[in-house]
Amino acid sequence: MKRLGLLSVVSVSFLALAGCSSDTGVPEADADEVSSIESALESNSGGFEAKDEAPDFADDEVSQLVGFEPRFADGTNFLAQAPVAARTYKLVLLWGHLPKADDASTAQPVPQKIDWSGSITVDAGAIALTETLRFDDKDSVSPRTDPKSIAFSSRTYPAVDGLVLKVAVPAGAQMLHFRTTALDADIDLSTLARDVGGVAPLGDGRNALAWVGFPDAPGCTNGFVFGHWSKLKPGIGKLKGTVLDDEGKRIGRAKGIWGFAKAKGKKVFFGKYIASEGGHRGLFGGTYDEGAFNGLWGNRASGEGGGLRGFYSDGYDKTDTKGVWLGRYAEPCAR
Question: What is the pTM (predicted TM-score) of this model?
């Protein structure tokens, strides 16, 4: 399994490798675009400026990103049934086409149809569902009666499905159980105070469960980023995504670049995020490798602001069906 910090994932059941081609054709990269990104990677800000932009950066690829929506969201306040002393966590779970990152090669595994139907449970406390991702007409969340359990039907091909959850659990019962037809995994929520999340691979070279999250902390602004980590050619590419608040609601957009900066001797990424109407909100950037990224969120140039951590699974497609960018950001807490 991929480790992002110290992860706790156990009881993972594997599917056999499917008998199909391991990768698809590679599109030809735009030489001018690649050259421009290579030059920008050597700068201190990736070429991004602290100024307002048009909504969605006036970029069709950004405006067409698939996002989370409140379909199947709870109509009942299940968290009210949690113990008074319970601690609350916010997290995003994604499952589906998430092959191991291989950004320095031409590899691009072919998606595979997978049935992920199952449940998410806790031993004590309660779970609230606030948003879903890509749940189409054949997918569903079962009507809920038990605050400790969410049952769902989900099949992925070629992309990913996902949920945004709020989980309230008492001390000593902080395990979240993911039990599906494809894979079983246990997530130790208590580690989210220290670690960004984790990735549990299915074992077929294509699919995985991934999650990011954090404990709810009054006075602190935390949220999520989700979108596309696209590869123009081996070792260099772009990222674009949606900025979400701590309950999965869209509050802005993000756009950036990534690649190996020769003068710096390391793999770096840079980007900018804006409000939904285009107002400048901050610059971000840091380093990445082997499917994980870690950087600053806010004023990257001066080192002020918060942090940005998460994972990526690269791909060539211009849509976000291949190449996933998922992370969490944290802004400085109020004093």
Answer: 0.90
